[in-house]
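sanity check this:
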Amino acid sequence: MLNRLMPREGKFFDLFNAHAAQIAEGGHALARLFADFEASAAHAEHIDVAERNADKITHETISLLHKTFITPLDRDQIHQLINKMDDILDLIQDVAESFVLYDIRHVSAEAPPLAQICQMTCDRVKAAVAPPPALRHP
């Protein structure tokens, strides 16, 4: 009976997936930023929106962590994971803000491929966080 009264598990994995989706959005917007200088402000705004959404998810995850008695992973691991995921978008946002602030119109030949690598890495983070198909909800 006590088990029914104790909050358990929560929706941590749903929050991780939602955050990872924002990371992927930010990575794609960063690659578009390096490919299309004329619309750099619009791409930077897209990154800002993704980062703000991810911050809300981070806050919700930490709040849920404080309310949940039994968690699916170690509390410290959940806290570290969500904060490290948030750091990814913070760094992407820093790049975009610098790009717009300094009104960059030309980059070295290596920059767009590095932005593509960042985009692929963000997609990999999303794939790594996603549950295997057998465990997904209907």
Q: What stands out?
A: Confidence is low (pLDDT under 50) at residues 1-7.
